[in-house]
Amino acid sequence: MYHALIRTHHITSRKKVATLKAATKKFNCYALLRSGGAPGLMYVESGIEKDTQSWVNTVHGLRYKDYQLIAHVNGAAREVVPATEEGVLEEVATVKEFAAAMEGKGLLKWWRTAMGYVHD
Protein backbone atom coordinates (compact mmCIF):
# COMPACT_ATOMS: atom_id res chain seq x y z
CA MET A 1 0.00 0.00 0.00
CA TYR A 2 1.10 3.54 -0.75
CA HIS A 3 0.38 6.20 1.84
CA ALA A 4 0.57 9.95 2.30
CA LEU A 5 -0.22 12.29 5.18
CA ILE A 6 -1.15 15.95 4.80
CA ARG A 7 -1.57 18.65 7.45
CA THR A 8 -3.42 21.91 6.80
CA HIS A 9 -4.57 24.79 8.94
CA HIS A 10 -8.15 23.49 8.94
CA ILE A 11 -10.70 21.63 6.82
CA THR A 12 -14.10 23.32 6.92
CA SER A 13 -15.21 23.78 3.30
CA ARG A 14 -17.88 21.21 2.46
CA LYS A 15 -17.32 21.96 -1.23
CA LYS A 16 -13.63 20.98 -0.94
CA VAL A 17 -14.55 17.85 1.04
CA ALA A 18 -16.99 16.90 -1.74
CA THR A 19 -14.16 17.33 -4.27
CA LEU A 20 -11.92 15.08 -2.15
CA LYS A 21 -14.68 12.48 -1.88
CA ALA A 22 -15.05 12.44 -5.67
CA ALA A 23 -11.25 12.11 -6.07
CA THR A 24 -11.25 9.22 -3.61
CA LYS A 25 -13.72 7.35 -5.83
CA LYS A 26 -12.00 8.36 -9.07
CA PHE A 27 -8.57 7.16 -7.92
CA ASN A 28 -9.80 4.12 -5.92
CA CYS A 29 -8.22 5.38 -2.71
CA TYR A 30 -9.15 5.26 0.95
CA ALA A 31 -8.99 8.65 2.67
CA LEU A 32 -9.40 9.76 6.27
CA LEU A 33 -9.96 13.43 7.13
CA ARG A 34 -9.86 15.25 10.45
CA SER A 35 -12.20 18.11 9.62
CA GLY A 36 -13.99 20.89 11.40
CA GLY A 37 -11.11 22.69 13.04
CA ALA A 38 -7.37 23.07 13.37
CA PRO A 39 -5.31 21.17 12.51
CA GLY A 40 -6.77 19.65 9.37
CA LEU A 41 -5.35 16.18 8.74
CA MET A 42 -5.64 13.97 5.67
CA TYR A 43 -4.44 10.41 5.26
CA VAL A 44 -4.70 8.60 1.94
CA GLU A 45 -3.78 5.10 0.82
CA SER A 46 -4.06 3.06 -2.34
CA GLY A 47 -2.47 -0.05 -3.77
CA ILE A 48 -1.25 2.00 -6.73
CA GLU A 49 1.36 4.72 -6.18
CA LYS A 50 0.09 6.82 -9.10
CA ASP A 51 -3.46 6.89 -7.67
CA THR A 52 -2.21 7.97 -4.25
CA GLN A 53 -0.12 10.72 -5.85
CA SER A 54 -3.08 11.86 -7.97
CA TRP A 55 -5.22 12.22 -4.83
CA VAL A 56 -2.45 14.24 -3.15
CA ASN A 57 -2.22 16.44 -6.25
CA THR A 58 -5.97 17.06 -6.01
CA VAL A 59 -5.55 18.25 -2.41
CA HIS A 60 -2.66 20.49 -3.42
CA GLY A 61 -4.79 22.01 -6.17
CA LEU A 62 -7.46 22.99 -3.62
CA ARG A 63 -4.97 25.44 -2.09
CA TYR A 64 -5.55 24.69 1.58
CA LYS A 65 -4.06 27.21 4.00
CA ASP A 66 -0.72 26.00 5.47
CA TYR A 67 -0.69 22.89 3.24
CA GLN A 68 2.10 20.53 4.31
CA LEU A 69 2.76 17.11 2.82
CA ILE A 70 4.30 15.72 6.02
CA ALA A 71 4.63 12.13 4.81
CA HIS A 72 5.27 11.89 1.08
CA VAL A 73 3.76 9.10 -0.99
CA ASN A 74 5.57 5.92 -0.07
CA GLY A 75 5.00 2.39 1.09
CA ALA A 76 4.56 2.38 4.86
CA ALA A 77 5.14 -0.76 6.86
CA ARG A 78 2.10 -1.84 8.84
CA GLU A 79 2.04 -3.70 12.09
CA VAL A 80 -1.27 -5.26 10.99
CA VAL A 81 -2.95 -5.33 7.59
CA PRO A 82 -6.69 -4.79 7.96
CA ALA A 83 -8.84 -4.63 4.84
CA THR A 84 -9.48 -1.13 3.54
CA GLU A 85 -12.31 -0.21 1.24
CA GLU A 86 -11.26 1.64 -1.88
CA GLY A 87 -13.22 4.70 -2.93
CA VAL A 88 -14.16 5.57 0.65
CA LEU A 89 -13.61 8.86 2.44
CA GLU A 90 -14.15 8.93 6.20
CA GLU A 91 -14.24 11.99 8.42
CA VAL A 92 -13.48 12.28 12.11
CA ALA A 93 -13.89 15.30 14.37
CA THR A 94 -10.83 15.05 16.64
CA VAL A 95 -7.13 14.29 16.47
CA LYS A 96 -7.75 11.58 19.07
CA GLU A 97 -10.21 9.84 16.72
CA PHE A 98 -7.72 10.23 13.86
CA ALA A 99 -5.00 8.60 15.99
CA ALA A 100 -7.38 5.77 16.91
CA ALA A 101 -8.05 5.17 13.20
CA MET A 102 -4.31 5.09 12.50
CA GLU A 103 -3.86 2.61 15.34
CA GLY A 104 -6.64 0.45 13.90
CA LYS A 105 -4.77 0.37 10.59
CA GLY A 106 -1.50 -0.58 12.30
CA LEU A 107 0.03 2.80 11.41
CA LEU A 108 0.14 4.55 14.77
CA LYS A 109 3.96 4.62 15.03
CA TRP A 110 4.30 5.82 11.42
CA TRP A 111 1.67 8.52 12.00
CA ARG A 112 3.16 9.70 15.32
CA THR A 113 6.61 9.95 13.71
CA ALA A 114 5.27 11.89 10.70
CA MET A 115 3.39 14.28 13.02
CA GLY A 116 6.60 14.92 14.98
CA TYR A 117 5.27 13.45 18.22
CA VAL A 118 8.12 10.90 18.41
CA HIS A 119 11.52 10.62 16.76
CA ASP A 120 13.12 7.49 15.35
Automatic annotation (TrEMBL):
<protein>
    <submittedName>
        <fullName>Uncharacterized protein</fullName>
    </submittedName>
</protein>
